[in-house]
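Batch job 17 of 40 flagged for manual review because the log was empty.
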Amino acid sequence: MSINSYQDLKVWQFSMNLAEKVYHLTYQFPKQETYKLSSQIQRAAVSVPSNIAEGHTRDSTLLGVRSEELLCAELETQLILGERLSYLDIQDLQTVLSKTDEVSRMIRGLQKALKAKL
């Protein structure tokens, strides 16, 4: 399969699914969190596929991939806090953390492949 667009990248597709799941989960947060934690979580989640797309478009994918791994860790931390504050139940947290871990592994794989090309 050839990659003609960032949308062809599996890591972009998986990270879009993750962002969608995160948005649905944060809709459950209390209203007072609308412009606080839920907003931060949403921004972190949408930044992952956005930066992958930007990096691919600029042909600087390796730089974008490095920051995506950090964003995944940031997202995980914020989600764990959401669970600790009882905004998420443990099953939802485990589901989304599993997806975040999967995206992180894909990002590391992409990093290795891009470094091998250099």
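Reviewer: the log was empty due to a logging misconfiguration, but the result itself is present. The mean pLDDT is 88. Unflagging and moving on to job 18.
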